[in-house]
Amino acid sequence: MTPKIIFRYSHIYDVHWKLVTENNPLRKRLQKEYPSSKTTLQYIRKIATVWGKKEKEYLQTLSSLTRLKWNRKEIHCYVVGFCRPFSDPLTIRPYKNNDNFIDTLIHELVHNLLALENNLEKGFKYFQKKYKEETKLTINHIPVDAILGLFHLKMFGEKRLEKVIQFDSKSPEYKRAWEIAKKEGFENIIEKIKK
Length: 195
What we know:
Elements: E1 4-8, H1 11-20, H2 25-30, H3 37-52, H4 55-66, E2 74-79, E3 86-87, E4 90-92, H5 98-115, H6 121-130, H7 136-155, H8 158-168, H9 172-184, H10 186-194
Helix pairs in contact: 4-7, 5-7, 7-9, 7-10, 9-10
């Protein structure tokens, strides 16, 4: 089963994020004021069309690379004016560049796929034991980055993958996860996930 991503807007949820991110320095750097609900709804319509063109291919590729199965017909993705993206409830902000939105959505969907019915419960124990000297955030992103690395090479190519790695490397813990994933080899880590 390949799910359908349903992009949603919730005024209450959006107002919550507006208040939570009011003094966020990144938000202040990226935009002068929080987007209106009209602006966010227009963005949702636009990005849903862009995403929809390749949605099935993206989701099937993630599943086939990992041999993990989606178990839902629909996944709701909330789009709010500004937030730090996360996987549950799947929440993302608008990006100026469509590729950045898609890359972020795929990242969060990998988290989603790994979390379904404890897909990686044993696998995470392996990673926690092997990389016990690393932070939890780094450990959690080693399998995610291995999947993302292979996915990006297959779907978009090395240049776009390097942009994703460069963007993520602003965080020392994310940077470290990419270093480990590249050193161990994306395929090798994915094989551990499959086992």
